[in-house]
Structure prediction request, 262 residues.
Amino acid sequence: MISQLKTIVLAAGKGSRLQAGESDAPKVMRLARGKPLLWHVLNALPAMPKEDVVIVVGYGKEQVIGYFDGYVFAEQAEQLGTGHAVMAASGQLSDFNGAVLICYGDMPLIKGETYEAFLKAHFEQGNDCTILTGETTLDLPFGRIVRDADGIFLCVVEDRDCTPEQRMITELNTGVYVFNAPLMLAALKEVKNNNAQGEYYLTDVPEILRKNGARVGLFRRNLGDEILGVNTLEQLEQVEEILCRNQGHVNSDCLKGGVACG
Prediction:
């Protein structure tokens, strides 16, 4: 399975709401348990050669490249959405016919076993695209998964665009996908930026693939805290506390500003 797989990690954001004091670190370089958020993400991925992992960098790219030696990097010079970020890495997939996992450098709580089960389902079901979805008790502004009457995927609707009925849907889009690489690259060319933000959204790709006749699957899992990303200082503190508790190292020092515990 791993020989058929590459990974793209989106890690280009500044994280404006995380800037505090004199810190100018990019979002993925903020510390939790003494390690950058991106370190936790890479550590949870299935074992694969570093050259098969493409990290999309932008703001503070020198910090990221300098810390994570041996990986492949692609630059997103402008922040024009998640679809645009994947487009920035497309040159690394030009001759690749396997699957590509898309994940995020600011979501450090997704566990290795979740990635493994997700990828296993994708390959066993013969999907062209599989979306990691889940439920959580956390109040998060995530897109909703819309299915038809038979439970088949139709589309992702962003939280801000949901109707009152769609807002009641509990199945959330994590933003983590695995795609057939050539089909994904072709679909990205059809993504439009005719939205209020003027951005290219990766969430449009599964619907484009479905309409083009590709097989799109959903891997639904009770993710709980795993779904949490880091956009604010409060979420950073929350993530650090969860990491400590998951590893059995809860103490007062652990929960103070990135101090490694255990």
User: Anything to note?
Assistant: The longest strand covers residues 172-180. The two ends are 34 Å apart (CA to CA). The chain has eight helices and eleven strands. Helices lie at 37-44, 61-67, 82-88, 112-125, 164-167, 181-188, 204-211, 233-246.
